[in-house]
């Protein structure tokens, strides 16, 4: 294993700080793969903790928000910016030798205070009724985010989050969540998700679980402002509610923001009532368009 105890941040006088950030980006990218490839779980945990604490220091440096960390992105860390450039997520996962996943991350704000929120996965031991709760950053469920879509609710700007969680050796998860700011403080979740127009019990987020050999599409379609997703079903009737056996059915659903709710419907009903029925929009992405399916 690399001698991480001897790791020293490189420094050099420059006007932007990008040289210093670039050196650390390269060095961390050499250590980061150990999170998933080291021979023992202890070595993987050591690498994950080192990367986490190193980023915690680096991301507090003024100007670091503008640095892309391309080397880390090409190895381990998922980095996604909000379309308005107000914040970004940097997330990565530790995979144990048994195939279990644990997520780490940061929410970095593009503000004068250089606000930074450390995120540690709690999805394995979530709060009771976590689907219905608004959660603080210390209660983060854990996900590799790959898409952020802004929308407005009651005049307040919010952000739809699409993420992936490798979960366990048996199943994967996709997560649909909301990020918003309460007097500048980030909050995860809002009771805006309904499983149909007649659903009277909205949830604060939606978690999809499925067999780990399956690929589930969960994709935000920018032009149509909808989330397109695979419909998940048990592979045989007796497997109902046993998500190890859930797989895509071949049909598609979608979420659209209507009258203050993210409401799910079958994609075959898309545009119904507008004089035209489309089973599949022409620009519909394939599952391969979801970066988490390119494993």
In N-to-C order, the SSE pattern is HHHHEEEEEEEEEEEEEE
Indicate the overall shape: globular
Q: How many beta-strand runs? A: 14
Q: Provide a count of the helices.
A: 4
What would you report as the Rg, rounded to the nearest angstrom? 20 Å
> What separation lies between the terminal Cα atoms?
25 Å
Number of domains: 2
Task: List low-pLDDT spans.
Answer: 1-15, 272-295
Category from helices, strands and their pairing: mainly beta
Helix content: 10-25%
The quaternary state of the protein chains shown equals single chain
The biggest sheet amounts to:
5 strands, antiparallel
Q: How confident overall, as mean pLDDT? A: 86
How large is the share of residues in beta strands?
25-35%
Secondary-structure blueprint of this entry?
Elements: H1 18-31, H2 34-37, H3 41-58, H4 70-73, E1 78-81, E2 87-95, E3 101-109, E4 116-120, E5 144-153, E6 156-165, E7 171-182, E8 185-188, E9 193-194, E10 206-211, E11 218-221, E12 226-234, E13 246-258, E14 261-266
Helix pairs in contact: 1-3
